[in-house]
TrEMBL record:
<dbReference type="GO" id="GO:0030026">
    <property type="term" value="P:intracellular manganese ion homeostasis"/>
</dbReference>
<dbReference type="GO" id="GO:0003700">
    <property type="term" value="F:DNA-binding transcription factor activity"/>
</dbReference>
<feature type="binding site">
    <location>
        <position position="103"/>
    </location>
    <ligand>
        <name>Mn(2+) 1</name>
    </ligand>
</feature>
<dbReference type="GO" id="GO:0005737">
    <property type="term" value="C:cytoplasm"/>
</dbReference>
<feature type="binding site">
    <location>
        <position position="11"/>
    </location>
    <ligand>
        <name>Mn(2+) 2</name>
    </ligand>
</feature>
<feature type="binding site">
    <location>
        <position position="8"/>
    </location>
    <ligand>
        <name>Mn(2+) 1</name>
    </ligand>
</feature>
<keyword id="KW-0464">Manganese</keyword>
<dbReference type="InterPro" id="IPR022687">
    <property type="entry name" value="HTH_DTXR"/>
</dbReference>
<dbReference type="InterPro" id="IPR050536">
    <property type="entry name" value="DtxR_MntR_Metal-Reg"/>
</dbReference>
<keyword id="KW-0238">DNA-binding</keyword>
<dbReference type="GO" id="GO:0046983">
    <property type="term" value="F:protein dimerization activity"/>
</dbReference>
<feature type="binding site">
    <location>
        <position position="77"/>
    </location>
    <ligand>
        <name>Mn(2+) 2</name>
    </ligand>
</feature>
<keyword id="KW-0010">Activator</keyword>
<dbReference type="InterPro" id="IPR036421">
    <property type="entry name" value="Fe_dep_repressor_sf"/>
</dbReference>
<keyword id="KW-0963">Cytoplasm</keyword>
<dbReference type="InterPro" id="IPR022689">
    <property type="entry name" value="Iron_dep_repressor"/>
</dbReference>
<dbReference type="InterPro" id="IPR001367">
    <property type="entry name" value="Fe_dep_repressor"/>
</dbReference>
Length: 142
């Protein structure tokens, strides 16, 4: 299993390839706000673990294993963002919250959160009920 840092790179590489059709070291560095030499070192590690194929000066390609994990990591991130919205977390802080927790949850926990998100999407009245409870609690805490 990849480390949290490897996961961040795989997630971003997968997203770049989906958006642009390719991912260069400079694109990854810009997206993750890191130095290109850091990207090169990590890409070499990911190549050694067979998540991607990297050729110096020629770019990189995700392997089937890398694509599968990248897709799952993007799903995890998007699912957690949706969960945060449903439970009423301030939109401005959602990205940071997701980045802070996504590597610390088991895939079983992610699957259960997915079930909960699906439940709320299929039962919008429950989201309204949740908002009412939150409003009442906020008023009590003022």
């Amino acid at each position: 299993m990849p480390t949290p840092s490897m996961e961040d790179y795989l997630e971003r590489i997968y997203m770049l390839i989906e958006e642009k059709g390719y991912a260069r070291v400079s694109d990854i560095a810009d997206a993750l706000e890191v130095h290109p030499s850091s990207v090169t070192k990590m890409v070499q590690k990911l190549d050694a673990k067979e998540y991607l194929i990297y050729e110096k000066y020629r770019g990189l390609v995700l392997t089937a294993k890398g694509k599968k994990i990248g897709k799952r990591l993007v799903y995890r991130h998007e699912l957690l963002e949706e969960f945060m919205k449903i439970i009423g977390v301030n939109e401005e802080g959602i990205y940071e919250d997701v980045e802070g927790i996504e590597h610390h949850l088991s895939w079983d926990a992610i699957d259960r959160i997915g079930d909960l998100v699906q439940y709320f999407e299929e039962n919008p009245k429950r989201v309204e009920d949740l908002r009412l409870v939150q409003k009442q609690n906020d008023e009590l805490n003022e």
